[in-house]
Design brief:
about 350 residues, alpha/beta, Quinone Oxidoreductase, Chain A, domain 1, Rossmann fold, 2 domains, six-stranded parallel β-sheet, 16 strands, globular
Length: about 350
């Protein structure tokens, strides 16, 4: 934790009191909102109507919400979402306030964490958020809401890439690019739990961090060429895309798989076909079974998010600015204290 760290927002026993209202009389909340695309300065703490859970949904009072690079990109250029106004955020950890019609998994007062449906379910950078019940799992008792909020999107991405797409197995060898980043540092831990041999790329000052996570070998991308090796991998997890994806094809054994989180260069697929390897681009999906698997890893002490900084919701613009430097180790998290 850093000097930006904030205490837990409130006890999970907080009652669902009415709170402030909008001019029309509807319950209100504060959200990190934007009405235009642009830099971090477009983000404003704004009073908005509190959402109401529909059938199969829960209303969650947000304790903490993770930040991911996709938040920065959507703030600046929107990507998959319609033009502003919008409230970003997919990671959430908090307490159930209300359950919609047909919900059987959770009750008010339950502590949950999860990833809102990506990309169209954004909205966790607020005091309250609604989402489908099966986007959530019970928050592991052994971690706080800040830790829990740092996990969902990045951990689900790593899980879906390594386990569900690549079918990573014990004894296989995996290369993870940007292994000290949000997805990367969780992918290292998931791969080690699977019994794989893990090589991670990162700047030299982060190699000790990677070894603490269990990495077997490290490559300094600033001074070393990851392709300058006789090593051949069964799986490459590419978090960078572009030319990195194409070049990664060359370090895969025949029959191996490259899973990229961003599109590769135009020749990536052709290179993969020539090398007799598979190359896929993964877009993370909300998934209760994946969240349960992540909760199990956390409960067994096999997975933990590294939180390098926390920011109050009101300082979300500053959090975005720090995240966009590209130098964050692990995750940044927004702490939220819903009005009562």
């Amino acid at each position: 934790m850093t000097k930006n760290d904030a205490p837990e927002a409130r006890s999970s026993s907080r009652p669902a009191t009415p709170g402030p209202t909008t001019p029309g009389g509807a319950p209100a909340m504060l959200a990190l909102h934007q009405t235009a695309l642009g830099g971090p300065d477009v983000l404003r703490l704004t009073e908005l109507p509190r959402p109401v859970p529909g059938p199969g949904q829960i209303l969650v009072a947000v304790h903490a919400a993770g930040l991911n690079p996709t938040d920065f990109k959507h703030r600046a250029m929107s990507l998959f979402l319609p033009a502003p106004p919008l409230t970003l955020g997919w990671d959430v950890s908090g307490t159930v306030v209300e359950a919609g019609y047909g919900v059987t998994l959770f009750r008010p007062g339950d502590e949950v964490f999860g990833m809102l449906p990506y990309p169209y379910g954004a909205g966790s950078h607020a005091e309250y958020v609604t989402g489908p019940t099966r986007a959530f799992a019970a928050k592991p008792a052994g971690i706080d809401h800040i830790q829990a909020a740092a996990l969902p999107l990045a951990a689900l991405t790593a899980w879906q890439a390594l386990v569900e797409t690549a079918d990573l197995r014990a004894g296989q060898r995996v290369l993870i690019h940007a292994a000290a980043g949000g997805v990367g540092h969780l992918a290292v831990q998931i791969a080690k739990d699977r019994g794989a041999h893990v090589t991670g790329t990162a700047s030299a000052p982060k190699h000790d961090f990677l070894r603490e996570l269990g990495a077997d070998a490290c490559v300094d991308y600033r001074s070393e060429d990851f392709t300058d090796t006789d090593e051949r991998y069964d799986v490459v997890l590419d978090t960078l895309g572009g030319e990195t994806a194409t070049r990664s094809v060359g370090v895969l054994r025949p029959g191996g798989i490259l899973v990229s989180l961003l599109p590769g260069a135009e020749d990536t697929q052709a290179a993969a076909e020539k090398a007799q390897v598979r190359a896929d681009v993964l877009l993370v999906e909300h998934d209760r079974s994946g969240m349960l698997a992540i909760a199990d890893l956390v409960g067994r002490g096999r997975l933990r998010a590294h939180v390098s900084g926390t920011f109050p919701l009101a300082e979300g613009a500053r959090a975005h600015a720090q995240g966009e430097t590209g130098r964050t180790t692990g995750k940044l998290v927004l702490t939220v204290a819903p009005s009562s």
